[in-house]
Amino acid sequence: MSKNSKTIWLMSIGAVVLLALVWVGRDLFLSRSGDIKCEDGPRRTIDIRDFITQYSAYAVELEAAVSDKKLTAKLNPVQLQQLSESLQNANEFRKFLVAGYNACAVSKTQYAGYGATFQAMDSLSRQINTALSKPELNPQEKTDLANLVKQYINLSQQLAQK
Q1: Other CB atoms within 10 A of residue 22 CB
Q2: 94 burial class (0-12, 13-18, 19+ CB within 10 angstroms)?
Q3: Which CATH number fits domain 35-161: 1.20.1420, 1.10.287, 1.10.150, 1.10.3470?
Q4: Could you read off the pLDDT tens digit of each residue along the chain, which spans 162 residues?
């Protein structure tokens, strides 16, 4: 390999490393929480990714399963559509909640209440995912799954009513 080729390779590797460092550094800088003062006291801002990790990890997995369209044998089409809409509405509400909290439009008490609802939804998502992971469901398991989906949909609708 000639000296110019080695230089080009070293510069290319250096550029890739530099881009990776800039990418990671930018992400770390943007995810920092700041301190803000609101009527109900000081608070730290929340990064939406942290909220999703804390309250909605299984909902993301469930959303992937719903979009995969392999659930038609386990859920009737109406339930599947309602579940899909509930997941989308919860995602949008999650963004609204974090933005509202960071802008002092949502109080700490309201946020805690919504957080509890999201935790309950995440727990239901985990149970639904577990049921959906089985290759075959007996009649009782199908009934249980339908009830879990109904509970998830009800919680999702409650978010909009709070």
Answers
A1: 10
A2: buried
A3: 1.20.1420
A4: 677 888 888 888 888 888 888 887 776 665 566 788 888 888 888 877 776 666 555 666 676 666 665 555 567 778 778 888 888 888 888 888 888 888 899 898 888 888 888 889 888 888 888 888 888 888 898 889 889 989 988 998 887 776
